[in-house]
């Protein structure tokens, strides 16, 4: 059994997508980040960065005590290695999938996240920042479009690289992107959206949360008012 500490963000969706694809039994523990659940001591013991998602695996492959994992990319890799699914077993193919997983973690996610912030959440419009992150998101979409020009999925077969990237493309309109300008990316996006496991994962999200995480000034303060004092 997997305990999943989750909220309805792109990084959270990555893990429900994997768990639904793999058919692993799991229990969702909602962490409402707009209310500050991420600062509760029980959650911080498994996710010291006070971010979702995180998991606890009560049946690790070594047969030992439960294992906790935080950071969405690390969780995807852990689950792929645990199940032997959605990651290639040969050296070169595995390396390609891991490169694109890290590309999402270091590029697409952070840049699209800043795009979201300055377009939707910043208290004042900062044209330079908006232009900077919309353009960088477009560049990254172009990189992914080129990778997908001659293959069905990012690493060839469906993998954790696809699960990592897809949720960050879902809000493409909010990011100022037109998928029609990226035909290979659009074809890939539509194929993943139609997968039964993807549909089930997003149905979970709709059941758990029906409101934006930033819904008032208090949730804005909780999400965007953190600094080093938050950790003490």
TrEMBL record:
Transmembrane segments: none
Family matches, as InterPro entries: Glutathione-S-Trfase_C-like, Glutathione-S-Trfase_C_sf, Glutathione_S-Trfase, Glutathione_S-Trfase_N, GST_C, Thioredoxin-like_sf
Domain GST N-terminal, first and last residues per copy: 1-87
Annotated ranges, domain GST C-terminal: 90-212
SUPFAM superfamilies documented for this protein: GST C-terminal domain-like, Thioredoxin-like
CDD domains reported in the protein's UniProt record: GST_C_YfcG_like (cd10291), GST_N_Ure2p_like (cd03048)
One Pfam family hit: GST_N_2
UniProt-recorded name of the protein: Thiol:disulfide oxidoreductase
Organism of provenance: Pollutimonas thiosulfatoxidans
């Amino acid at each position: 059994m997997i305990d999943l500490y989750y909220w309805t963000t792109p990084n959270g969706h990555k893990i429900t997508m994997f768990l639904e694809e793999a058919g692993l039994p799991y229990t969702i523990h909602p962490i409402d980040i707009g209310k500050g659940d991420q600062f509760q001591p029980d959650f911080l013991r498994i996710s010291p960065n006070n971010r979702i998602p995180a998991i606890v695996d009560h049946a690790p492959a070594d047969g030992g005590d439960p294992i906790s994992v935080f950071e969405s990319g690390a969780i995807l890799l852990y689950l792929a290695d645990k199940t032997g699914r959605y990651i290639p077993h040969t050296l070169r193919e595995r390396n390609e999938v891991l490169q694109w997983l890290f590309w999402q973690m270091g590029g697409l996610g952070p840049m699209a996240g800043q795009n979201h912030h300055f377009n939707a959440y910043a208290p004042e419009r900062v044209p330079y920042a908006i232009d900077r992150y919309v353009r960088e998101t477009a560049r990254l979409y172009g990189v992914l479009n080129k990778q997908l020009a001659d293959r069905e999925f990012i690493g060839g077969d469906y993998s954790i690289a696809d699960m990592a990237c897809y949720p960050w493309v879902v809000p493409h309109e909010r990011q100022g992107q037109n998928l029609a300008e990226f035909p290979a990316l659009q074809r890939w996006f539509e194929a993943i959206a139609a997968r039964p496991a993807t549909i089930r994962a997003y149905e979970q999200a709709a059941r758990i949360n029906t409101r934006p995480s930033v819904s008032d000034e208090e949730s804005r303060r909780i999400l965007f008012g953190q600094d080093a004092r938050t950790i003490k």
